[in-house]
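Example record

One chain of 174 residues, shown exactly as stored in the release files.
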Amino acid sequence: IRTYSDMRAFEELYTAFQEPIFRFLLGKLPERQDAQDLTNEVFLAAWQYLQKQVVGNVSGYLFTVARAKIADHYRKRTPVVEENVEDHAETLQDQKAAKVADVLDSKSELDTIKEALLTLHTEYREILALRYFDEMEISEIAKALGKSVGAVSVSIHRAKAAPQTAIRNNFRSS
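Predicted structure tokens for this chain:
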């Protein structure tokens, strides 16, 4: 994508990856507008970088840039805005918990599940989000994260098992 004629290649790249990158960012940011803005920033950075460099794994590169943009976004925020982010995160957790509560009979079970999910390692939460919220294939997740398909499969299995183990342990100790 080093010449003007490569504009078509970049348009195809944008068409293929705009929606997955946006969904990824939307899952990490409290506001839809922030996700839209950062999606644009990711592709602007990609355009500028690809003018000078060749990238072997474009998907992995784009998701890496997206993660960096998220980190930059949160670093730039003021403390007041961070409180709003925390409030929004709590609201989202409560909304998700409300859906789970429809299935569960007691509040104590719900609290146990919430605690178990919050104990997940950030990598596990990210992999589960890509797999089940963004509906990405394991091979796509592997490319995006720069990992092997096997490593991603194992991480998904472990991420799904971790809350169950924590819940079982909690109920045994009750």
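Notes: Residues 30 and 87 are 9 Å apart (CA to CA).
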